[in-house]
Every structure is written in C-alpha cells, then in structure tokens.
Design a protein that fits this description.
The protein is mainly α. It has one domain. The chain has three helices and no strands. The relative contact order is 0.09.
Length: 101
C-alpha cells in the first residue's frame, strides 16, 4: 500500500465520522436551511453528471452520468418538497369561517 492511499483513506474515514456527527446533531430549527443548502450542493453535482452523460459514445461513464442525473434530480425535487412542507408549518393558519380568532 502506498503512503498516498493511506493518507487519502484516513481523510475519508475522518470525513465520514465528522459528517455523521454533524448531521445527527442538527437542531430541528435548522432542518429547513440545511435542506436548502443540500439542494444547492445537488445542483452543482447535477452539472457534473450532465457533463459525464454528454459524450456521444456509449460507455460506463455515460451510464454512470445518466444515473447520477436521475438520482440528483430526485434529491433536488424531493428536497424542495420537504422544504416547502416545513416552511408551511410556520405560517399562520387561515380561519375556516373568515373570522380571525
């Protein structure tokens, strides 16, 4: 094993642990802003996936790029749906009979 592989693998393992603790320690009030940031990151990922899916010749990179486009699109649109539902929880409810309560 090369020293570079061990170095990069160590960084990967540390990133997994830090990511796990950061995500699971988020307070509920920050879930909507966190979801919006996740959507922004996914929009950057989809650009790279479109570039990978773009070549004319059919190969593994085109298939992987297409799969990445589909999965990232699901993530983006699902994130927007969740964000909208969470933001609706904080809006004032309209009275049913038109009389303010």
């Amino acid at each position: 094993m090369s020293d570079q592989f061990v170095f990069l693998f160590t960084i990967f393992v540390l990133a997994v642990f830090i990511g796990y603790y950061v995500v699971w320690n988020v307070t509920p009030a920050l879930h909507s802003p966190l979801m919006s940031v996740t959507n922004a990151i996914s929009s950057v990922i989809i650009v790279g996936a479109l570039i990978a899916a773009g070549p004319v010749e059919m190969g593994f990179s085109k298939l992987a790029g297409f799969t990445a486009v589909v999965l990232t699109a699901i993530n983006i649109f699902g994130g927007f749906v969740v964000s909208q539902r969470m933001l609706q929880m904080y809006r004032k409810k309209k009275p049913l009979n038109g009389v303010p309560q």
